[in-house]
């Protein structure tokens, strides 16, 4: 939960479903004990640059400059 709203934790790269289930159980156990997952603050300029590269890679040069 973040600000009273559910926010799922996403992770991939497991070879089999059982590995993913074990990892999910570990995260849930930590949440129950009050240990938050690794959330690191990122400066807004770095976040924005990554976001633009990931989601808006097809923008024209003029649009990117604005």
Q: Can I get a quick summary?
A:
The protein contains three helices and no strands. With 66 residues, it is mainly alpha-helical.
Key descriptive features of the protein:
elongated, 66 residues, 3 helices, 0% strand, mainly alpha
Describe the structure.
- With 66 residues, the protein is mostly helical.
- Helix content is 52%, strand content 0%.
- The radius of gyration is 17 Å and the shape is elongated.
- The N and C termini lie far apart (35 Å).
Dominant shape: elongated
Q: What is the C-alpha radius of gyration, as a whole number of Å?
A: 17 Å
Average pLDDT across residues?
82
What is the count of helical runs? 3
For the termini, the CA-CA separation is 35 Å
Say how many strands there are. Answer: 0
Order of helices and strands: HHH
Low-confidence stretches: none
DSSP helix fraction: 40-55%
Largest sheet: none
Binned strand content: under 5%
Q: Which structural class should the secondary elements be placed in?
A: mainly alpha
């Amino acid at each position: 939960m973040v600000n009273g709203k559910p926010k799922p934790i996403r992770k991939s790269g497991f070879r089999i479903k059982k590995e993913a289930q074990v990892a999910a159980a570990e995260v849930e156990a930590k949440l129950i004990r009050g240990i938050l997952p690794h959330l690191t603050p990122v400066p807004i300029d770095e976040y924005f640059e990554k976001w633009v590269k990931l989601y808006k890679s097809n923008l024209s040069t003029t649009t990117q400059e604005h």
